[in-house]
Amino acid sequence: MSQNYTGSNSPLITTEPYKEFPANRYVESVSDISRQVDESENNGGIEPFLNDETPPTLSVADAIAQMLVNLGVSYAFGVAGGAMASLWGALSNSSIDVLNFRHEAGAAFAATEAYFANNRPTVVFTTAGPGITNALTGLFAARGEGAKVILLSACTSAPQRGRWAIQETSTYTLPSGGIFTPGALFNYAITIESAAQLPQIFRKLALAMAQPGGFVAHLSIPTAVQTSLVENISLPQLDVTPFPMTASKQAIAKSVELLSSGPFAIWVGFGARDAAEEIIELAERTGAAVMCSPRAKGIFPEDHPQFVGVTGLGGHASVLTYMEQQPPLRTLVLGTRLGEPTSFWSSALVPKGGFVHVDIDPEVPGVAYPHVETFGVRSDIKAFVEELLQQLPDAPDSTTLSLPRPEHKAIEPAPEVDYPVRPEVLMAAIQKIIVEDTDAVVMAECGNSFTWSTHLLQFSEANRYRVSTGVGAMGHAVTGVLGAALANNSKAVGIVGDGAMLMNNEISTAVKYKIPAIWIVLNDARYNMCHQGMKILGLKGADATLPPTNFAMIARGMGAEAVVVLRESDIESALKQAIASNVPFLIDVVIDADRPAPSGGRNKSLAAQGVKSSSAKNPAKQVSFPMV
Hints:
- Keywords: Thiamine pyrophosphate.
- The protein is of the alpha/beta class.
- The chain contains 21 helices and 21 strands.
- The chain has three domains: 13-238, Rossmann fold (3-Layer(aba) Sandwich), CATH 3.40.50; 249-391, Rossmann fold, CATH 3.40.50.1220; 423-597, Rossmann fold.
């Protein structure tokens, strides 16, 4: 969607400095916005939403909506309510596309995925009280994933606070710290009590949107303030000058020294997603083996002979084989926290010489493995690798040794009665019809959907596969797929479990706005990661079963198209039908619930943290990485 930058001829923000900022970011900044602005009629300036001669009929709500337009916001996702009616109206009458969801958490997940799809900041809007609290899980995920999302909420006006207003939102009913103030959830949070606060708020948001990394903000606007008029506010010109996130010469020199002293491996994380070409060049010049986190699948092509596998949850035993048989002296870590979903904190992944760990967050290096020698570098990944390529000498012999490859077991012939569907057969069909024959974004829900997809699907390009590892909330992919499809203006596919589909789906929203989302439901009538995990750990008595559900019937009842797949022979035709459809489409796949998902590494990690098997005769069987 083209942006409508309107206002006076005197720019509030001068974006010339954006051109000097490195193109790659750990989490995308507003480079696309900057390019559009640089090509605008006023020599690259974003025009102000207000000026010194603002007519007194402009409300705070209108001013905020225009402010968001000027920050590059294209989409707003939320659930409306009376307390924020004026703000809802202002957003709806701006150039922002406003989508009314069925639940605020779903709106926040969609906003998060829309950001990753088009690299533009997104908005979540909620009414007072439960509107805010319902959105918190999705916003927690946005912060953990590194998205740029702005929450606009309503709160109770000052004269009514403490008087039991409808859905009262004040310190009488909700904790102020952490929700209405900056902290672990919000990078920036403020309650707007006066129009006079707008210039400073705009300045803070503009600076944040121009910097690398994620940023989640909360602007809470009392109902009465939304309709108050903006008068006599002078907004000075704001010159946004982001500091370049590049490593120092000393850090580059030290990195070159360490990586030149012996063979090294490259561990790619989600923060390196804009440096794919540079990482490929680095690997091929040096012969380095490459592994990746679950979120980083495809940044380095998985069919490349130097790719040894995915680490962590749903990953490949080939990584451990490589570390045992051809151990590197050091590992260059690019844009991953190396947290439990990526490493399980396994000592088998620690090279003798330690890590060279590059990240834009200076607090990341050394946290996952505090006892391991780590040289931390704060830098944008692309800028760092580009500099490294210039300084790092060519390897004496860059011929790559024969490296272990991710295991892909041949699928056994179909049984005489091909019912129910084996998950590995479903994944093979998704690989063929969706991954290889389309450019659709594929998202996998937490649970067994995550492990099957991460372990068996292969991607050869960045930004095609999305999973949430840090938060891993059920319902993220089920609802986030709408944001991905909308912002990409193309098909997006969510591989989800029946538990997540029951928890929080937005089929009705997709139908209303004609969003080309596809859901592939692994229907096994269980919370099956929990069921299988408890069984492997030998813990008995817990019930993770669900009543059988016909999701195709539910989807058709909401206006989507849907089919039920009972037999393996029907999978490919169902996938092709979904791709060809012009409306939201659900495929309800009845899968074999007893096929062991590749999640043994997670069970091993739980055991290491104190979850003990109820029987010494039943140790945690490792069916996946890390087989230690």
